[in-house]
Specification:
The complex is a heterodimer.
Chain A lengths: L3 E4 L2 E4 L5 E7 L7 E6 L6 E5 L3 E2 L7 E6 L2 E6 L8 E7 L6 E2 L3 E5 L1
Parallel strand pairs in A: 2-11
Antiparallel strand pairs in A: 1-3, 3-8, 4-5, 4-9, 5-6, 7-8, 9-10, 9-11
Chain B lengths: L2 E5 L2 E3 L5 E8 L7 E7 L5 E7 L6 E3 L7 E6 L4 E6 L8 E9 L3 E5 L3 E5 L2
Parallel strand pairs in B: 2-11
Antiparallel strand pairs in B: 1-3, 3-8, 4-5, 4-9, 5-6, 7-8, 9-10, 9-11
């Protein structure tokens, strides 16, 4: 199985800041990587797929990059509603696997 | 509006069974692969099972093989997960989700709580 390791596990930032979350895969997944946002008591929401394609309706302050084994999710101009846990997911091979999550708190 | 609504969750004793249902609306159900994803208390996400558009192929994570069965009824716009031989570690919120090829989960239900306890 492909393991996904996210860093940091948690981060705190202020409104207007820029935050970067990384996801490293144990094997190369080319660009088969997605990012999800999950708020408490809610289902996850797809933000980015194919490593860098923004899902319809997602604000442009979210962006993704990377290929192979190293990927990043960047959020610019942080907003209070961005407080959530973020997960990466690989779709290169079964079983599909997720990272352990990164909790983002807004100060 | 795309909508997915799970039902059938509950409290069950170890070794027991449950059948989760997911009724969808707002899109052509038979055009999409569908999946079940679970999240244990305070834990991350785990892809549990998925099924092709016509039900011809199913995938299961190793930890549920032989105990869980995913199925669908395209005439009823419904997805199912039969869960047998339940264990404490199966306690989780179970989400049904629509799969945007190849494996991206672009629409989710609200989740169904399954608690395994004596």
């Amino acid at each position: 199985d492909i393991q996904l390791t996210q860093s940091p596990s948690s981060v705190s930032a202020s409104v207007g800041d820029r935050v970067t979350i990384t996801c490293r895969t144990s094997q190369g997944v080319t660009s088969w990587l997605a990012w999800y946002q999950q708020k408490p008591e809610s289902a996850p929401k797809l933000l980015i797929y194919d490593a860098s394609t923004l899902q319809s309706g997602v604000p442009s302050r979210f962006s993704g990059s990377g290929s192979g084994t190293n990927f990043t999710l960047t959020i610019t101009n942080l907003q209070p509603e961005d407080s959530a846990t973020y997960y990466c997911q690989q779709g290169s091979s079964f079983p599909v696997t997720f990272g352990q999550g990164t909790r983002l708190d807004i100060k | 509006e795309v909508k997915l609504v799970e039902s059938g969750g509950g409290l069950v004793q170890p070794g027991g069974s449950l059948r989760l249902s997911c009724e969808v609306s707002g899109f052509n159900f038979d055009y999409f692969v569908m999946a079940w994803v679970r999240q244990g208390p305070g834990k991350g996400l785990e892809w549990v099972a998925s099924i092709k558009k016509d039900g011809s192929q199913r995938f299961y994570v190793d930890s549920v093989k032989g105990r869980f069965t995913v199925s669908r009824d395209n005439s009823k716009n419904s997805l199912y997960l039969q869960i047998n031989s339940l264990r404490a570690e199966d306690t989780a919120v179970y989400y049904c989700a629509r799969v945007l090829a190849p494996t991206w989960l672009d629409s989710w239900g609200q989740g169904a709580q399954v608690t395994v306890s004596s």
